[in-house]
Protein 1
Amino acid sequence: MNETVFALPGNESLAGSLAKQLNAETGRLILRRFPDGESYVRVESSVEDKPAIVVAALREPDDKFLPLVFLAAALEDLGAKKIILVAPYLAYMRQDRRFKKGEAVTSTCFARLISERFDALVTVDPHLHRRSSLDEIYTIPSVVLHAASLISVWIREKIENPLLIGPDSESEQWVKSVAEVAGAPYVVLEKVRRGDREVEISIPHVDRWREKTPVLVDDIISTARTMIETVIHLKRAGMPAPVCVGVHAVFAGNAYEDLLAAGAGGVYTCDTIPHRSNSISVLPLLTGGVLYLQEKL
Ligand code: R5P
């Protein structure tokens, strides 16, 4: 029996495309707020004995979390066979340690809450910083997909004479693999984060790369300070306007506008979070991920 694909508001386009790829039904759902701010959730599709897939990019997760959990609970009540969360952007991956006494380790706590409500998880490039696998915090099966190959192909097709630039040592492995497939050279910069919105970048000698088009690649663009600082430095060093490519278009506040205003020669992202910069679709990855998971479950 075919599965049903539901979308949290804002994810309808990707969920609809995923349903088509899977030859699945598109789920009908009413999700709204009462005047007092509480959530109302009603599943209108019949899901009994069928797998249900919920597509939810978890940018600004606090507002989305309760509706997501209520939806999962309603699907369970209605007898859905398995409930799979497709979160192309997975939130709460950064605070993976207690830096100061009394801090909540939110990544662990969030993973526990999601694991209680869903049977499996599909996601793209989660920010695994000090952890090596989602299995360290999620107790449900998960499929982790990587956008690197899609980004490589996009760069190969769209950018002439690219030089890939990773903003910090953490990004090295990732940038290296994108560069290899794109058939382009790469450099990795040094970054010192001085606060939530303050980042310092040090650029190695760029003289030998002056003829190239710099392409900054990063997994997350959040405040965009990392990319903004890099763009400013590269331009000061006489490089052409850098093209900025990110997997997850988090773009807190005016980050997107600020990045363009800083002189980026275009900002392009994957569609893991709906945003006007989306240029690279992760749909093929998600489709493969769900099919793989369904065989395993
Ligand atoms: C950091 O570890 C990540 O790879 C990104 O460099 C970071 O999340 C970017 O953040 P922001 O856009 O706030 O500088």
Note: Residues 167, 170-171, 199, 218-226 surround ribose-5-phosphate (CB under 6 Å).
Protein 2
Amino acid sequence: MRRKIVAGNWKMNNDLTETEGLITDIKKQQRTSDAQVMIAPTFTNLWHAYQALRLSDIEVVAQNMHFAESGAYTGEVSAGMLKSVGINGVILGHSERRAYFKETDEMLAEKVNAALENEMFVIFCFGEELDDRKAGRHEQVVESQIKNGLFHLQASQWKHIVLAYEPVWAIGTGETASPEQAQDMHAFIRQVLETKYGNAVAENTSILYGGSVKPANAEEIFSKPDVDGGLIGGAALKAEDFYAIVNAI
Ligand code: PGA
């Protein structure tokens, strides 16, 4: 059975004081769903977040990492460093990393390997641009991002992978994919997994939707059979909104 997950991607928001405040607010929220809750603060706040949440049911994950273990990569952070501050999961391939920091499928495949070698799980993001959707090649784009980033893995490694479909045109724009567009793409992704790896991997891999998920639209999106939760940006920065989304599952 695949897990239901709601993960908050804080992006480059919240200094230490703000992180403490938001975690305090999050801890006060009432939980009525059994979804796995995750938050992804910035690197500098991971250790604090881990300490503050280690006895809770909230998992703290990183937003990115480098593929090398150590060395002359100024400004970068390795999987081993994340592990050493209690972090067991990482978001990889976010469209902002792909667009602004020129992360390629090949780099992402290496990052995935580094994460798995360090016994971390990966939330692997992908999604088409508006032009791709307008031209009707959204499925092709998504399929190639998944293939290039992940299809070198063995079936047995997929238990460490969570997928996050995030159409670029819906991220931070207030424009959400319709529940039907999300469902159609998630069903397509599951089909792609089934063709390559068979039914067990396809059925057991959680596929999250991301892109302007809000308390007002979460329930309808999450009601779709192939949508297993969400990767939440803006709405994860307010504890009440984030938990309204968590509880919409
Ligand atoms: P958004 O971001 O919810 O603010 O659109 C989602 C994401 O980038 O993961």
Note: The longest helix spans residues 179-197.
